[in-house]
Structures are given as C-alpha cells and as structure tokens.
Amino acid sequence: MAYLFYSIVFIFLIAATVLYATRAHWRAHAPPIPYLTAPGPIPETLYNISDYLSRRLDSLRYSRLPQSMGFADDAEAGLHSTNFSLADNIEAEDSRRGLDEESRQEVYRIMKRRNVGFDEARRLFIQDKFGREGIAADGRPLDRKAVMFDR
C-alpha cells in the first residue's frame, strides 16, 4: 500500500514539474481561474474562509503570552494606553488578578498578528465579539424581532 502512495505522489510531482516547465505553451489556452484573474469584487464567502483559516492557523501557532499576576504585569506587557490607563489600579495596589485572562490573550494576539496598538486591538476585539453576539457596530441588536423604544 505504501508503494502505491509513493508512486502516486512521485507521478504527481513529475506531472507538476512538466506542467510548470511548459506553462508558456499551454497557459494562453487555459481557462481563467475565477476570482483570481477575473475583474470584480471578491465574494464575501472567500473572505470568510480566508479569515477562518488564518484564525485557525494562528491558534495552532505558538505565541508565548506573558503571565499576568496583576495590573502591573499587564502594563509591562503593553496592555494599556492613555485611553485605558492602569496607573490608578497600580498606584492603589489593587489586589485583583488584572485584566480578564481570555480577553487579554485575544487582544495580545491581535496586537502581535496585525501589528497594531492596544487601543486598536481592543476595538477589533470588541467588534469581533459584538459580531459573534449579534450586535451591530452601532450597538443595536441585529435581531429583526428586537423592539427598541426612543426616549
């Protein structure tokens, strides 16, 4: 059985090499690949698939997250800004463990993966969380049956 598998793989590699080497001859006769060569917008489903795959691969990658023992550790890890200051908690010697561990890890991953600051990573995290919970960007529910009253 292993010989069959290796034979098929070997034949595939030979065929791929021959096609690559002779691509100048047959490329003009090949049909266009949809969404790669055709003009126009890329469908939303392809973006969703791409986003899902990148999130899945990022979750498999190892990225060392700093261990949080309090607000001082969160500040040292870069999880603060002028809009989200931890200085008051640190000065008051707050005994709590610091920021929520799961949210903290996700914000830290966004900061490293997209190379953005803490405020932007926190905004992206909240937008993603709103989307998962069925809340629009303006804070209104996406449920068609929701009833809202003006003041």
In short:
Helices cover 54% and strands 0% of the residues. The chain is mostly helical and 151 residues long.
Helix content: 40-55%
Largest sheet: none
Which overall shape is indicated by the principal axes computed on the Cα atoms? Answer: elongated
Q: Would you tell me the overall average pLDDT?
A: 75
Keywords: Signal
Pfam families: DUF2015
Family: Belongs to the UPF0357 family.
Could you characterize the architecture of this molecule?
With 151 residues, this protein is mainly α. The chain has a domain at 44-133. The chain is 54% helix and 0% strand. The chain has 7 helices and no strands. The chain has helices at residues 2-21, 23-26, 44-60, 71-76, 87-91, 101-114, 118-133. Helix 6 (101-114) packs across helix 7 (118-133). It is elongated. The termini are far apart. The model has no long low-confidence stretch (mean pLDDT 75).
Spell out the blueprint of helices and strands.
Blueprint: H1 2-21, H2 23-26, H3 44-60, H4 71-76, H5 87-91, H6 101-114, H7 118-133
Helix pairs in contact: 6-7
Which characteristics define this entry?
DUF2015, mainly alpha, signal, 54% helix, single chain, 151 residues, 7 helices
